[in-house]
Amino acid sequence: MAEAVKNEKSNDDRVVGTFVRDETSDQYVIHNDIVPVQENVIPMTKKKVFVPFWSDKPKVVLLELKKFLESEGFGNFQSSTSRLSTPTLFHNDNNVLKLHNPKSVWTWVNDFLESKGVSDDVLNLWTEFSEDRLKKTVLNRLDVWSNLEFENTKSLTFFNDTSDTSFVVFDNGVVKITESDRLLFD
User: Fold this and answer.
1) Which of 112, 133, 134, 179 counts the most CB atoms within 10 A of its CB?
2) How do residues 121-171 score in pLDDT, each as one tens digit?
3) Of 16-25, 39-48, 56-65, which one has max mean pLDDT?
4) Residues 90, 164: one domain?
5) Of the candidates 109, 111, 69, the residue with the CA atom closest to the CA atom of residue 90
6) By residue range, what is the domain housing residue 71?
7) Is residue 151 part of a domain?
8) Would residue 49 count as lying in a domain?
């Protein structure tokens, strides 16, 4: 167990316990003499860490840019077994697939960089990185996904209606409807 974070007090100012971070499990535990430790575990939410995809020169590092885009949900979708078919570029934004092209991905990255307050040198570097170069060196090499389990693709699950089941998409989740049940997937 690691450092104590703070003492929590109840309404009558008695100390109820101490929050302690367990570095081995990335959880906080309330330590006191009353409640067993197993019932006091509070899972930590891991914050996504932004890893720069450029070097100090500055120069775009292609492999790092590919990893960054994949970690943000970008990929290629394959809908046919034909090896001549062109995969469709998409962005998985909270389980909503949004279709993209090289220009829209370039704009998405530019907006992301601006929102992170990167230096003008990095913004200039990105401005000089053309959409064509982005497509040829990174976007065409993103992971390929399929809902039909094609060879050399990652699995992507879709909610497809059948004669017995229907799926309705809402902002906060998907409802699965059958004759006997309604279930919300969030």
Assistant:
1) 134
2) 999 999 999 999 999 999 999 999 988 878 888 888 777 788 898 888 777
3) 56-65
4) no
5) 69
6) 54-143
7) no
8) no
Same-domain pairing of 87 and 34:
no
Domain-located, residue 74:
yes
SS (H, E, C) the chain: CCCEEEEEECCCCCEEEEEEEECCCCEEEEECCCCCHHHHEEECCCCCCCCCCEECCCEECHHHHHHHHHHCCEEEECCCCCCCCCCEEEEEECCEEEECCHHHHHHHHHHHHHHHCCCHHHHHHHHHCCHHHHHHHCHHHCCEEECCCCCCCEECCCCCCCCCEEEEEECCEEEEEECCCEEEEC
User: Do 75 and 118 belong to one domain?
Assistant: yes
Spatial strand order in the sheet of 4-9: 4-9, 15-22, 27-31, 41-43
The neighbouring-strand residues paired with 41 are 29
Distance CA 134, CA 153 (A): 22
Q: How many domains does the chain have?
A: 3
Q: Is residue 170 part of a domain?
A: yes
For residues 99, 105, 107, 109, the Cα torsion angle rounded to the nearest 10 degrees is 130
